[in-house]
Design brief:
Aldehyde Dehydrogenase, Chain A, domain 2; 16 helices
Length: 518
């Protein structure tokens, strides 16, 4: 029997499906139905926000260390269910099982970090310019947070938002990718069983457009105080406009066209390994996936020859096996990616593949693991000869396609590494520290890798980008606390008289009992 999955509002399933249902199939075996999502609409979203609003104050009044215990419990439950959760992810979005396990581990790591943050959430004591007066800072929760996430990281990325948001005393409405409902349901049930009070967490299954309409109503009527969004730059812009007119700043984690620069002194085999995982891991469906290799003229041909061998030898196919990548997440992702193949121009040369586009019996790939016709598998594609003027140079293709461009001097390399307008992740392969620090200083990206993949950030460093990749907000570690709390400043005057800041400071200095140093 097909699993029916619905929104969860105020701790209860919302089984009405005002926007119909969505049947989700295993992208590696399209005949296999995974689940059926009962889709909510804009009104569902608004009701969820009302429920969150009603629960938020009481949750904020729970001592932070106690909120931390709920996060700790959630982490334990996820750990106990690591394998089954990983299998659901692999079955629903086709992520290779080792990567799915790593993704679940990222949730556990995030919980580990924030469980003890409940015993910190430090504020400061600050000296006053006046005697008998003390200044303090406190972190206060923002209120109700709406978190909207994509399906390529269906549990890790949601945890980056939900865990700190809850720990900080916010109530949340989570809109997961509606095309990954089984994973969302498993994640939501583990969270609810961690002991959150009713109404502190809701999940809404809805399309992007219904969500946007509901979010607009909720923000405009004061029901939502903060938005966290991971997804496309275009949608991020719309959310940014909506929040901006309500004087809110969202946490936006958008696309990338992440460069990997190879200097002439690089360890080329290491660079090939890094480019292979950056470009083709998760079938290129990460915001941190490699967009363009920017390689020095002197090593271009050598790099490309080695990369070509590695891409041809890579195992692709059944994601329950040990493969570099499995299928595209779903038909929408596969079709959009195939559309981007049109960006390949006559001046480009295509490498690394025996075919372009969908892998099938008619367009086979040697060494394919399993049956390509059963799922949404596409060939890996390396496109050489990319120039700064090409659409391919500035378009995020969100699939297994890597561009290759060349450069002569360092300045030219930097211009290519920044010129696409995104600024999420960037990598350099070199043995020279001078190159490393010059690159770090001049790259516009929020995250820099040295002799490492553009993808695969650890769960406790600031994650986020600039330019078309985001509005400068950062997730993870202590940095995300600034997204889900606001600073409150307090001053306490115990002098027994009205001391005026700035104005009375001169009197203090003139007091005969007071000596300025020097
Ligand atoms: C994303 O694709 O939205 O750094 C996030 C990485 C992963 C997260 C990617 N840990 O590649």
């Amino acid at each position: 029997m097909t699993q029916l999955i619905s929104s969860l509002i105020g701790g209860r399933s919302d089984t009405a499906a005002p926007a119909g249902t969505l049947t989700v199939t295993n992208p590696a075996r399209l005949v296999e139905v995974v689940a059926e999502a009962l889709l909510g609409d804009a009104d569902t979203f608004v009701r969820a926000a009302i429920s969150a609003r009603a629960a938020q104050r009481d949750w904020a009044a729970v001592p932070a260390p106690v909120r931390g215990r709920a996060i700790q419990q959630f982490g334990r439950l996820v750990e106990d269910n690591l394998e089954s959760l990983a299998r659901v992810i692999t079955r629903e979005i086709g992520k290779p099982i080792r990567e799915s396990r790593g993704e679940v581990q990222e949730v556990i790591d995030t919980c580990t970090f924030f469980a003890s943050e409940g015993r910190r959430l430090y504020g400061q004591t600050v000296p006053s310019e006046l005697p008998d007066k003390q200044l303090f800072t406190f972190r206060v929760p923002v209120g109700v947070a709406a978190i909207i996430t994509a399906g390529n990281f269906p549990v890790a990325v949601p945890s980056w938002y939900l865990v700190p948001a809850l720990l900080c005393g916010n109530a949340v409405v989570w809109k997961p990718a509606e095309y990954a409902p089984a994973t969302a349901e498993a994640f939501a049930q583990l969270l609810l069983h961690a002991g959150l009070p009713t109404g502190v967490f809701q999940m809404v299954l809805a399309s992007g457009e219904e969500t946007f309409t509901g979010l607009t109503q909720a923000i405009d009527s004061g029901l939502v105080d903060k938005v966290g969004f991971t997804g496309s730059t275009d949608v991020g812009r719309r959310i940014g406009e909506l929040c901006g007119r309500n004087l809110q700043s969202p946490c936006l984690e958008l696309g990338g066209k992440n460069p990997l620069v190879i200097m002439p002194d690089a360890d080329l085999d290491l660079a090939v390994e890094g480019a292979l995982f950056s470009g083709f891991g998760t079938a290129g469906q990460r915001c941190t996936s490699l967009g363009t290799v920017i390689v020095h003229y002197d090593v271009h041909d050598d790099f490309l020859a080695r990369f070509d061998v590695a891409v041809r030898a890579a195992t692709i196919g059944d994601p329950t096996q040990d493969v570099l990548y499995g299928p595209m997440i779903n038909a929408r992702f596969a079709e959009r990616f195939e559309g981007w193949l049109e960006l390949i121009r006559p001046h480009h040369t295509v490498h690394g593949s025996t075919g372009l586009g969908r892998i099938s019996d008619a367009n086979p790939r040697e060494g394919f693991v399993g049956d390509p016709a059963a799922g949404l598998f596409v060939h890996p594609t390396v496109v050489d000869g990319v120039l700064a003027g090409d659409d391919l140079y500035r378009t995020e293709t969100f699939g297994p396609m890597v561009g290759v461009a060349r450069f002569g001097d360092f300045d030219e390399g930097m211009t290519l590494a920044n010129g696409h307008g995104y600024g999420l992740s960037a990598s350099i392969y070199t043995r020279d520290p001078l190159n490393v620090f010059r690159f770090r200083e001049r790259i516009d990206a929020g995250m820099v890798s040295v002799n490492n993949s553009t993808s695969g950030a650890e769960a406790h460093l600031p994650f986020g980008g600039n330019g078309k990749s985001g509005n400068g907000s950062r997730q993870s570690g202590i940095w995300v606390l600034d997204q889900f709390t606001r600073w409150q400043a307090m001053n306490w005057d115990y002098s027994g008289r009205l001391q005026k800041a700035q104005m009375d400071v001169a009197d203090v200095a003139a007091d005969p009992g007071f000596r300025l140093p020097g």
